[in-house]
């Protein structure tokens, strides 16, 4: 029995295909893409810690400073899902070994009975996803839309999450009750919005320059890439005990929901010797989360004074790095519009030995992932508990001159789950081009 139910066929997403760095003709500036920032040391060794969830112990790969957060978020979710089992390497694992696990999961997810007409499309998606693997340890690009937590521009990154049946979310959503800002931002991606600010701010057209100011105000006030509207929509969209990956502040985080509360998996290496600290609540845009154990009971770390000082310093450094990265991204989008590109890994995938981690009360392996098609959904829901006039970031904002924004609601597709299984794995966005 795996830690979580297997995912339903993907559907309900609203990723759209397009240029990752759109720019107009005639010398218009282009903005750099959102990019997770990671260590350039692709052969780095990462420490593994054991945590207990639902009476079962799982190995979790921890992250050092600027570690490969997209790779670790995917690996740790697959471990909790029961899709992979890490090898016993004395409590350490390399980036190349982790990428080999992801490739194994991709191969295991390949359906054996695809209609001939669908095989070519699947092969293309598989090739796109495989091309992303070398970048997982150095940084990957995503391009969010601000209309919903599952709205991304379609890229090869989207194909990777889709084939692995891992829901990919973000929380960077415009306040639906601020109609002026909603109209200015529209369905633009981050790249398009940054370019709009660059190109239209000095426009002689008053409407264009005003909209550019509204967009610039939104980007500045939400530089943490998380809003109250986004948090509320995440709570509405996710089901209890669903496992997903959240993109926030140029980082990827393993996320779940328990009793209506969002929890992010604690992977910082500073908690390596604190097995009672497993999750941290995500309730606001500026921190304030509480640590919990594997059963979601509040569990403040029991530290010696020396450990407390070091842990506080590590957290402070991490927050400082994240703030600096967010500020640099915003600054680059306005002052240095040249596009940034990722560097590919120079080495291939590392094949694993046959020995696996010793598992205590480990459930049986769930087997291969299953991928199948499903009808796509519509727009994601607008949360009811976002009040008109609320300050999304607790900072100044341009007041909305209009009333409530129109809203729509699409209920998530229900899963048929085994009551003995601990988690529901929800469908990932349907990464198909919108023609």
From TrEMBL:
Gene Ontology CC: one annotated term: cell periphery
Segments for region (Disordered): 1-41, 319-435
GO biological process, one term: proteolysis
Any matching Pfam family: MINDY_DUB
Catalytic activity line of the entry: Thiol-dependent hydrolysis of ester, thioester, amide, peptide and isopeptide bonds formed by the C-terminal Gly of ubiquitin (a 76-residue protein attached to proteins as an intracellular targeting signal)
Gene Ontology MF term list: cysteine-type carboxypeptidase activity; cysteine-type deubiquitinase activity; histone deubiquitinase activity; K48-linked deubiquitinase activity; K48-linked polyubiquitin modification-dependent protein binding
Protein name according to UniProt: Ubiquitin carboxyl-terminal hydrolase
